[in-house]
Amino acid sequence: MNVLIWVKNVAVLLLSLLFLIIGVNTLLGSYNLKNPMEFVMYFFSASLLILVCIVGIIYFFSRFFTKKQQNGIDNDETN
Question: For the whole model, what pTM was predicted?
Fold first, then answer.
């Protein structure tokens, strides 16, 4: 069961990195467009894609570095 969780998290990381590269490439390519409406559409779609990919990367690292207590409850309070 634990292996499947790691496979899912690594898949999220790899897909996020792949689409991040595609998003950055699209963003840089949007500056070569002549039509202002096409530029705006490509610019904002690439920005949204980059934002979603960054959230996927943050998700992986938050799952990787968080520590749970012995009883399985994840609290920030100390008693």
Answer: 0.76
Q: Is residue 78 part of a domain?
A: no
Comparing CA positions, the residue from 60, 64, 56, 65 lying closest to residue 20 is 56
Range(s) of the domain holding residue 59: 2-63
**Cβ proximity of 16 and 51 under 8 Å:** no
Residue 20 belongs to a domain: yes
pLDDT digits (tens, 9 = 90+) for 40-77: 999 999 999 999 999 999 999 998 777 665 666 665 65
Give the list of residues 6+ apart from residue 65 with CB closer than 8 angstroms, or none.
Answer: none
Task: Note whether residue 31 is domain-resident.
Answer: yes
- d(CA 44, CA 9) in angstroms, rounded, equals 27
Q: How many structural domains comprise the chain?
A: 1
H or E stretch covering 5: helix 2-30
